């Protein structure tokens, strides 16, 4: 299990608190054995350091790598004893326990070194995935073996001799052992720093006592071990021999059942542990407080996201317990998901090669505490993607988290986007909620208490004290905002800036009341321990609430296997278990960057596999059972009080309930274990010797009692008796008002959930009984349709008085998912028999089967059923008639989409497609027109059999036809869609004689096609490709082959064969050398053709999109009789309107913006307007020759290049502008594309708008001498007043970041 909630092994049900008591240390019989694997790792590191390579951990002191002083070398530790020898349900793994109790082997110290005992936890993962937990206390004992002391002295003599040879000068022949302390040589420095002399020093060696347990009761086990160590170091012997206490823990202390607390006796005091019930979050006993103090809120979220997306994570600290605490906290916060990959929170020194694993992992690496962390680097061989050094308590400097996280490979760019990923799933709001909790406990949100003076001040303060401190001007009970409390707090300031993007006010953050001053119960543990429990559960509930909200509907998208479990499990790799496409289609858009990646992780796949394998509650994984119960509560709440689906953050409401459950268990202990007692030991056994852990008597500890009445018979009876008493007292504790309140709530809930069985009642009684429910559904439908229309119309609706500004901004995906929920509830009301998870799709399938049978039998009647052959009227040319209206055909489209796997997903996709085609009301009307089928499927009181309400319901849905939805196209972005192309050439001007090979390329908002070769003399074709989204441009051209390679194309039409959307791309230009502007390819901008409204449908008031120029653009045909038709005022107005359209585009909310390509290149776009400005006043050199604007621009380029060569430039700004202008014109002329002069001008305008250079170029060209030669005096570009006005208008585009579509700038790399 993830985190600390793991379980024990199989076999005989581990009902004991602890399985083993283990002692590890120095085996005096075998002596000092070097740890070869650890030494090899150190040697490799030292070699890299000497060769100049980047060491994995920077070396500590010069000359101390492989040739370390003996006190700092690695020696093997051994398991000296274990009690009992073995238990059948948890076989003892001697190698694993030995390595993890003392991961770096034995440590030697002298009396001059600190020898504080160190506690750490660890875990052992078995092959079947189950976990066993270990808790170790390492302390130092004096070495009494003279052989060991002599061996250490000998090693020091050898070490000093080697050091002398390597570092002393050749002329220096002095005896190192006889040097004076005052002499300042490297050897004496080394000896003073870390040496051993058998005659004057006392040698100490590390020893470890350890408990192996089936569950992670960290606090209780730590207390047991510390009290045992205290008994050893105390000058007075303990009340009983140590064997009595160890025997008690191993054999007489039971494992508390779920939801119960247990008290047992240590050597000097009672020890309490409590276990969550089956409906609470799993057991987790590590202090979350330490993690947030080390990293801070923002960094914890960054690390948490890395873990969720299954990166390789390496934690780094000099404290083993710190590694374990951070790793267990991160995995515990993942509830209900569980880390599925390599998980080694403490990596022994001999297993460093594990870091080369090419799979995701979460590992912890121990440092020696003297490393320079600012030089911490990863070698090329180590594939860790995220390295997290955990700040140490004695650190004198504070590192930014970007120094703490080091990224390698391609994931550098990915991780920089993590902030956006987390922001989009309410990182700001969750951070604020977590910060609120931390501040109530005196913990600053930025963490790292050792580096922040303001943080240490906050730690000494309590929110309740500040509120009631009248000396500071505060009045008890008055609100205290955290922003006032932490005005200078950088984390709060960053969060405040972050939440502005999500629309949440920081004023909503309230400091929680200090948990210490709100206790009605007297708990039987110390205050600090209670605060750890409270903080842990509050933080975990916030994270669990977030996942519960995000995955509240996950169950309906689970793909249940059609075969038996064994077959499914055998073929698991080839099976899909979750309808990802449909699930993502329901999610708010900001969630998608995170969810689309998270759904591909192994932890999510395993979570769904568990769901599939456990149909019954009895078989369910405990974590899954807890999560499903929380999801059920949310669903129940939504059924009782139907609310709009929303992407707004919903704060956690289960904290108080979870906290109270813990306090109740700690206030009244459910069971007290047997007290330790004297064992049947021989005389002289259990001898006490201060400072030394005694050699325990194995004969009394190896086996438990032959008949343990406490653990086998009485204990379960006691637990059952406690359960009955607890339920009884909880009931009696309610006063009359509370009892009445709960009974009333239960009745209300029951009446809401259960639908009355009214099939045998009269119609009047049925109508009366169901009126409120049916009326509620109808009212909800009315509110939803109005809300969706208001949201779609946006600010326009607010201006028309249809809503308030603060209700806009809800995601379209969220609103449509809410509508789908409503349709499912309507179709579920009054069902005879529920079939499948989607009542709507089930009804549609029945309708499809009926139609198929009737068509097969030839008995299909047209009465009451709309014919599928009807076509919607369209203003499109008759050359491409619109698709026929067919409910059955739309169903087949959905059934053919392989990405959609579940009935619920298919129903929602069908609703989205019908809405996009503006056929939802019509399709549902057709579905319900089969009255025989409706009567067969639904009872008399069902909503769908209430004619008046049904008609109103369909009328409300009809209102969706007033707006354009692209809810199918924009959501199912990866599906294959067939597109139909029609090219219409000019019939009069040689279209039939065209000999070249044409091609076409279609672009949309989601991508573009490859170049599609069109067969010669074929003007109509259908192809299939991945969804392009809304179409924007078409590139069309030919290869200029054959005798008549000239082609006049009137327009191109493209139709989406699923949604029916038809786009028209006007052209009206020649494609051919020597014709028009000599272009062999053109970029056409399209418009979406709107269908004509039916008689019974409301007209669509959404304005049509702009189109590309639909007439032949008459470039300046130089003739005295052909003057520009527009005057300067009209040209100025068209440029102003084009620029104003772009400005409005960027000031709209992103979801209301149209296509920027249309505003730039459309008929009334910026390119067309500037073209009119340059055409105004163009001179005529001679008859019958076309001169284009690009000819003028090329001459201007030549002029400025000549000036630059002659170094005759008026000023620096002009030089820069001229150089940029020439660079862009040259790049466009050198493009491999066969675009004509008009296409080149369009490309120059687009690039100039993107790079904010247009106004500079206009000023440059206005003063160019070439202008005087090629334009008449009345030309707009020669009027300085008009040019200055034009420049000011174009300057307004500078503040916008204009991104061009790929098709507009293809082939240009500037």
Protein architecture, described:
The chain is globular. With 1310 residues, it is of the alpha+beta class. It is 41% helix and 11% strand. Helix 13 runs antiparallel to helix 18, helix 18 packs antiparallel against helix 24 and helix 43 runs antiparallel to helix 45. The strands form five sheets. Strands 1, 2, 3, 4, 5 and 6 form a six-stranded antiparallel sheet that branches. It has a five-stranded antiparallel sheet with strand order 18-14-20-21-23, with no helix packed on it. It has 45 helices and 23 strands. A hairpin with a 5-residue loop joins strand 20 and strand 21. The N terminus is likely disordered. Pfam families: dDENN (PF03455), DENN (PF02141), PLAT (PF01477), RUN (PF02759), uDENN (PF03456). This is DENN domain-containing protein 5A. GO terms for molecular function: guanyl-nucleotide exchange factor activity; small GTPase binding. It is found in: Membrane. One of its GO terms (cellular component) is membrane.
Class computed from helices, strands and strand pairing: alpha+beta
Report the major sheet: 6 strands, antiparallel
How would the global form be characterised?
Answer: globular
Number of E-type strands? 23
Furnish the topology, listing elements before pairings.
Elements (H helix, E strand, L loop, with lengths): L19 E6 L10 H16 L26 E6 L10 H8 L6 E3 L7 E8 L5 E12 L3 H22 L18 H8 L9 E11 L4 H16 L8 H11 L8 E5 L4 E5 L13 H8 L1 H12 L4 E5 L2 H13 L9 E3 L16 E6 L19 E4 L11 H4 L6 H6 L1 H6 L3 H14 L12 H8 L2 H5 L14 H4 L4 H11 L26 H24 L14 H6 L9 H6 L6 H7 L3 H12 L8 H19 L14 H13 L3 E2 L25 H4 L7 H24 L3 H18 L9 H31 L1 H5 L12 H17 L10 H19 L29 H9 L7 H14 L3 H9 L2 H7 L9 H12 L17 E10 L12 E7 L2 E2 L3 E2 L6 E7 L4 E8 L8 E10 L5 E10 L9 E5 L1 E2 L39 H20 L8 H6 L4 H10 L13 H17 L6 H18 L7 H14 L3 H9 L2 H6 L9 H12 L19
Parallel strand pairs: 7-13, 9-11, 9-12, 10-11
Antiparallel strand pairs: 1-2, 1-6, 3-6, 4-5, 5-6, 7-8, 14-18, 14-20, 15-16, 15-17, 15-19, 19-22, 20-21, 21-23
Helix pairs in contact: 13-17, 13-18, 18-24, 28-30, 28-36, 32-33, 34-36, 37-39, 37-45, 39-42, 40-41, 41-42, 43-45
